[in-house]
Design brief:
The chain is of the alpha+beta class and 61 residues long. The protein has one domain (9-54). The chain is 33% helix and 21% strand. The chain is built from two helices and two strands; from the N terminus they run αββα. It has helices at residues 9-18, 42-51; strands spanning 22-28, 31-36. Helix 1 (9-18) packs antiparallel against helix 2. The N and C termini lie far apart (39 Å).
Length: 61
């Protein structure tokens, strides 16, 4: 049986809109810390703040 599971809206936003602005990440025991590129627009950072609670993985502040 093959099941296709569609990611939620917030996960798609993360991969399509936020991930291109990330230069590196560090996996820690309490989640992942992302480092943004220099010059990342504030609306990208704000979007991450708004959606991180709805993602299936933990993102640190």
């Amino acid at each position: 049986m093959d099941m296709d599971i569609k990611p939620n809206k917030e996960t798609l936003q993360f991969f399509n809109e936020i991930l291109p602005w990330i230069t590196s990440s560090k996996k820690e025991k309490n989640g992942i810390t992302y480092i943004f590129k220099e010059g990342t627009p504030n609306q990208i950072r704000q979007l991450l703040t708004e959606i991180k609670g709805k993602l299936s993985f933990k993102i640190n502040n």
